Amino acid sequence: MNDITPRELEVEALRENDGLTYKAIGEYLGVSPTMARHLYVHAKRKRRDALRRELSHGETECPVNVPFLPSELTALQDLLKHVVQTRRHKGKTLSACYTDRDYAAARLLYNKLTGKD
Fold first, then answer.
1. Contact by Cβ (8 Å): 68, 76
2. 3-class SS at 9?
3. I want to staple 39 with a disulfide (CB 3.0 to 4.6 A). Which of 3, 11, 24, 67 is the partner?
4. Which residue range forms the structural domain that includes residue 44?
């Protein structure tokens, strides 16, 4: 994720950590609210693309064989299902959810466990 600029990181932090509006971010940084939104969207897109590259790169490597008890797999599946359903019900579209690293990883693992690849 080295391609995310320091300014994009700053906008992302101000938006997500501090809960500032694009207008407030723009005033703080001396840019327009539109530019603040543009920087935020680019940061999120770069993170999503980096996650996709990371996840797809992992698929080309040899799989790790980790022994699980059936009850552990069921618990993991239930947990992943909860993450997927919770994100979907927070009023976000499915594509918006994929910008969240935890959701994307949970969705990928859930699909593998349930055979929905």
1. yes
2. helix
3. 11
4. 1-64
The identity of residue 70, as a single letter, is P
97, pLDDT greater than 80: no
Type of residue at 109? L
Helix H or strand E encompassing 88: helix 70-88
- Our count of domains for the chain comes to 2
Is the pTM for the entire model greater than 0.85? no
Angstrom distances, CA of residue 90 to CA of 79, 95, 96: 17, 13, 11
Q: Of 64, 91, 107, which marks where a domain is finished?
A: 64
How many C-beta atoms surround the C-beta of residue 64 within 10 A? 6
Helix 33-60 with 101-114: angle, nearest 10 deg = 30
- Checking if the pLDDT of 45 tops 70, the result is yes
Q: Would you say how long the chain is, in residues?
A: 117
| pLDDT, average across residues 13-34 | 93
Closest residue by Cα to residue 99 from 45, 50, 57: 45
